[in-house]
Design a protein that fits this description.
Elements (H helix, E strand, L loop, with lengths): L21 E6 L6 H4 L4 H4 L15 H9 L4 E10 L5 H4 L7 E7 L5 E7 L1
Parallel strand pairs: 1-2
Antiparallel strand pairs: 2-4, 3-4
Length: about 120
């Protein structure tokens, strides 16, 4: 499959680098609580910037931004795919109440790890 001709890869801090509308947006936002960031193994804290880990007091601040602004960058039937932390779905799903929840996906250990929404 020739994906390179059909996919546009954009690395952006939230929506800073996005122009136009997309069919799919994928995000692996920081979802660790501010308190828990300090408890992470040194091997993680040493190599990952805090900005990539710290999701705020409850670990869901980035999802608020995505829920509020994501629609502006999606085509009419566009999808938003989000990685989430273990046990966070009950706190994140209400933020996307005005979106259509399409699917929830588990990781290899059976933990809910991904939520898919449609605009």
């Amino acid at each position: 499959m020739d994906l390179e001709s059909r996919v546009k890869w954009v690395q952006s801090h939230w929506f800073d680098q996005l122009e136009g509308r997309y069919h799919v947006l994928v995000s692996n936002p920081p979802y660790i609580t501010t308190t828990d960031v300090g408890e992470l193994p040194t091997t993680i804290r040493q190599f990952e910037p805090k900005l990539a880990l710290d999701g705020g007091v409850h670990g869901i601040d980035p999802y608020k931004v995505l829920a509020e602004q994501g629609r502006e960058y999606l085509e009419e039937e566009g999808h938003l795919v989000l990685e989430i932390g273990s046990g966070q779905a009950p706190h994140i799903l209400p933020l996307f109440a005005s979106w259509t929840h399409v699917k929830s996906l588990e990781d290899h250990e059976g933990h809910l790890r991904c939520l898919v929404f449609r605009k």
